[in-house]
Amino acid sequence: FPGGLHFPDKRVLLCALGYETPRVLEIIRAAEPSRVILLLGTRPTKKEFEERNRQAVQEVHGSTGFDISQVDVSHPDNCLGDLYAILTELGQPTGIHLAPFSTKLSCLAMWALWLSDPSIRIWNAQPREYNILDYSKGSASPRYFRVEW
User: In the chain, what is the greatest distance between 2 CA atoms, to the nearest angstrom?
Assistant: First the structure.
């Protein structure tokens, strides 16, 4: 018997894409969510990152037709506030699943969301081919954040 995942609740999957469309599509396939919300990151460290993220979101959206919401990826607190707003708009659903593939700051926000509710599930998928073009370059703009959760 190959087995499979079983979730008794309706699953809402929030996908923070970054440029990781193949990994996100694999998670969507595996999780079989009831609803998918693709998170478009706004206010990144470089304007070109927002355009590339927009293209990735459109690539997944075009093949699936899922919902799109914007989250501020400039600071973990801002992103966390946007995530809470999305959940409030959904009516605080049970069965929240996260796919954190955007900025490191948005990943921190998703971790903070999990801290507030450990029943939230966080997904990961290993890359088949690693995107070395952007992961090897720093932004040359170090920042210091005070984050209070």
Answer: 51
DSSP codes of every residue in 115-135? HH-TT-EE-----SS--HHHH
Interior/surface letters 1-33, b for 16+ CB within 10 angstroms, e for the rest: eeeeeeeeeebbbbbbbbbbbebbbbbbeebeb
Tens-digit pLDDT profile for residues 104-130: 889 999 999 999 998 899 998 877 776
User: Which single residue is written with the structure tokens 């995530």?
Assistant: 83
Task: Tell me if 117 sits within 8 A of 96, measured CB to CB.
Answer: yes
Q: How far apart are CA 140 and CA 27, in angstroms?
A: 32
Length of the chain: 149
Contacts of 23 by beta carbon, 8 Å cutoff, 6+ apart: 99, 101, 125, 126, 127
Question: What pLDDT, on the 0 to 100 scale, is given for residue 115?
Answer: 93
Distance CA 123, CA 136 (A): 24
Strand partners, 98: 14, 122
Read off the pLDDT of residues 68-87 as tens digits, 9 standing for 90 and up.
999 999 899 999 999 999 99
pTM for the whole structure? 0.81
Which residues have C-beta within 8 Å of that of residue 88, sequence separation ≥ 6?
A: none
